[in-house]
Amino acid sequence: MSERATFGAELRRLRRAAGLSLTELADRVHYSKGYLSKVETGLTTPNAALATLCEAELGAPGVLTALLPREPARRRTRPDVRPSGLPPATADFTGRAAELRAVRDALETEAGVCVVSGMGGVGKTALAVRCAHRLEAAFADGCLFVDLHGHADAPVPAAAVHDRLLRVLGVPAERIPADPDDRAALYRSRLRGRSLLLVLDNAGSAAQVRPLLPAEPKCRVLVTARSRLSALDDARHVSLDVLPAGAAAELVSALTGAGEADAARVADRCGRLPLAIRIAAARLRAHPAWDLAELDRRLAGETGRLSELDDGERSLSAAFRLSARQLGAAEARLFGLLALHPGSDLDVLAASALAGLPPRETDRLLDRLHDAYLITQPATDRYGFHDLLRAFAAGSPPADGEQAFGRLAAFAVREAERADRELAPQRYRPELGYPAGLPEPAPLDGVAWFRAEWPNLVALCRRAGELGEHDRCWQLAFFLRSYFFLAKLWDPWIATHRWARAAAEAAGDRWALAITTANLGVALVDRGDLDGASECYGDALREYRAIGDRHGEATALAHQAWADHYRGEHTAALRSFRTALEFYEQTGNDRNTAITNRGIALVLVGLGDAAEAAELATGTLAVFDDLDLGLDAAMALNCLGWARFHTGEHDLAAAAYREAAARAEACDSSHEAARAYTGLGNVAAARGVREEAAGFWAQADEIHPDLDPVVVGEARARRA
Hints:
It contains 34 helices and 8 strands.
């Protein structure tokens, strides 16, 4: 039996023993099924890389390697040099199975050109080299590897690459033409009839790659680049992202021996970038006194993390600088400005406000940054940063950064005011001024806009306070309040209003301080912190009285009445509500009058007069409908259902709750919808229909779990 047949027969035996088909083994080792079939039948010479991979997959270390031919036969299309210039494959390679398959499939297409692109440090070269090692045996004339240094100060010109490759292909130096066109023609001629894999690493542009593409269809080209090289029309493109969380943690464990939880944390600190993970592991090895906790501590600080990811020979910052070198002045300026945005992403209009440029021009610059993998595009019209690239960009802020942030904050306040007007058209708003030159307003859906933007607005609110943009800080909190009330986002509501209080105090704006403090109290009431809310209402009341704001004074009293009602102090609540009601009726404030009457209705239920409460709630519903206030109408219907439930009119209560649920769902209030379904469950339970009650309660829990029984009467009744 020959050595080749012995290798193939043993591979077949091991594969079958493992219960694997040829297709399954091919997927695991990333060789083609046809190639493996030829190896098993002795028609193709096996290689060391294949032996190692199959041994690992089949659990047979050393078995196949021992059966490799001592001198593999070399099939050539020409009786000359068979080059193999690949660098060694990276050890501990993980998490790229899908990408390896995509590259292999791309190289099997008619064009035979694959571009692997991605941000600096993401592992493009490691992927290309590993893939090339696995595919090399399929090319009779070997493999050529060239680093094009596309982002260095002096990228390698095509003529120099032709010269180098021709020498490797056995052309004597004196026979290489001096003229670039003649040299390119000789290069194409020398590749004619060959079967060769060409790996072009670190390409800077499509123009640098095009002269190097062979005309020979049996040759294949694998390119890596820090930009997308979209202009290579016939190429297949594989975009490389950061490692999946599990694979990144696996790499950390392999390099450091860390446990699962510690490895996952370090991987996240490194942004799941292979280069960053390898640098961090190298630093740990270089410091025997460190343990993993010390490495994690050093990587924990966002501001100093990039400086920690430098092992003396490799630096993540240096990798990022290579990518940034390709930027023109306008792109570089925008890159630095984008880091001033503290949120997770932004749209073109926000970027336009930052840059002080028209949206069309800003969009063009964003596209170039995205093409260079310096920013991400999580959605069609939104852009963001990888965390470590944000830190890199923030390290070189443009000279006009302060003015740029001011424009961004003003733009955010203006848009938040526009969205707030849709949510609460009757709400009082102060007259605000905005600088000239902001992007023109575009149509927006208030709820949808807030749903997408509120995390960014929260981050902007905080940063505005930190940077001394005190007015913009409290204004952002002010306009977020209606949406936070609708969505019941209590934590960001409380956080923004605490920052806003400090900002209003710093600005010396007593009205802003009063309204912000009162709105903070509303959030605390909703969270069930009645004492904290009452303290806020007391502070706001003093500020309103000091500046002579009677409307604010009435509102603070009405707010305090809600807190008293939830405490069970219904008489005190009724007194404060009626004082506020008198002012609202005198000033013709229909919305606040109806809201206050709704509060009085709930107090009357607490005092045992549910019939009067039902009548009052019915009257408020008509006002809210006239004013087209959907959320307030849903709340009024829930109030009516609560009153009818206490009068024992279960049919009327159920009807009110059903309409409340429909109205609440129409205006995106999961809280009021859950309250309505809880009320329907209570009605069903009172009728003795327990299965129906359980169904309604389950529906409520799915929509908005854990309604607070302190402030939601239906939740208290459900527990009774």
